[in-house]
Amino acid sequence: xxxxxxxxxxxxxEEGLDGWLLYDFHGSNPIARRLTxxxxxxxxxxxxxxxxxxxxxxxxxxxxxxxxxxxxHLPGSKTIYSRRESLASGLQAVLGGLKxxxxxxxxxxxxxxxxxxxxGTVEAVRALGADVLSSGDLVQRFEAVWSEDALRTHxxxxxxxxxxxxxxxxxxxxxxxxxxxxTEIDVQRAMAGWFTDEGLVTDAPPVVAAQENAGNPHxxxxxxxxxxxxxxxxxxxxxxxxxxEGGAVFADITWVGFxxxxxxxxxxxxxxxxxxxxxxxxxxxxxxxxxxxxxxxxEVDRACREVxxxxxYAAEFIHRTGHSLGTEVHGNxxxxxxxxxxDERRLIxxxxxxxxxGVYTGEFGVRTEINMYVGAREAxxxxxxxxxxxxL
Length: 392
Known about the structure:
Elements: H1 5-15, E1 19-24, H2 30-36, E2 49-54, E3 60-64, E4 77-81, H3 84-95, E5 100-103, H4 119-127, E6 131-134, H5 136-142, H6 148-178, H7 184-198, E7 200-201, E8 207-210, E9 234-243, E10 251-258, H8 265-291, H9 297-310, E11 324-325, E12 352-355, E13 358-360, E14 365-367, E15 370-374, E16 379-381, E17 390-391
Parallel strand pairs: 1-5, 3-4, 5-6, 10-17
Antiparallel strand pairs: 1-2, 2-3, 7-9, 8-9, 9-10, 11-12, 12-15, 13-14, 15-16
């Protein structure tokens, strides 16, 4: 969808900003590239470019002489540079004396997904008299909000992931009943084939983690490093994917099974804490959205984390509660985080994200991951909720 200049200018005035300066060098700022449509054009972009959207008036471009046409699909005047001296004078002209300018910058690198502009470029803009502020809230509005069609693709991807998850658990259950040996990599390869059957694409194969490997949040079985799935073990499946079509957004889920007929109390207790933390976060989001009240990413993390802390798992929950979902599995919207960062951005209508608390020890790990979508008056979970470990 083309960037709406009037909508951006309205948002800038609401935020008290004089302009939004989009900048990229050689793909360093994927947010700017997507917002300006460069990712869809197949154009060569080997030089620095700037696109300034002021709070009022005509946008302004600064383009290199050998790539002057790359932003011709967008409105605005154009300044051409080639020498470094003309770059400096051109940037000054483009800024036009604006004092408060948003860029993909995060103070203290608090939100790495937003911190895309290098320190030297920020220094160059500030040297020209402009105060550089974070574009985080603007990115929320114009890069992280899903269209109705994107929401459709998410729902379809989520439904497909749940089917793949069910098939994977069935594979393990059938192998155990028949006495057939099965490894993590066997299950992962089967799941990758089912992704193809479902028309899903992804940036990495699913995680299949048994027992102690499930205690590593980013464990990934490989042909060289994997283990057999034994009796009386936790089995964690983490899978994410999207439809193979332009503009599709990801779904991302995690479920946990147990290879036995009854689950030992230590696993039940850990999973119950993660489940209850998840549900506390869901309830907070739903209640705030229904009441028309603001809800910020760090608040969701706190609501979830307090439950696990009370259950005695403060030291075993070692990552944020959730992340934004978009055309990349870790999107550029607000994250549910008061742990790794302090994300003060608001959850706004049209955005999607995960809630995924876990408990990780040297012996085992559990996690429950669901996806939520924030509508105008209602927040929903876009798939089933796991309430207990699946017996395998």
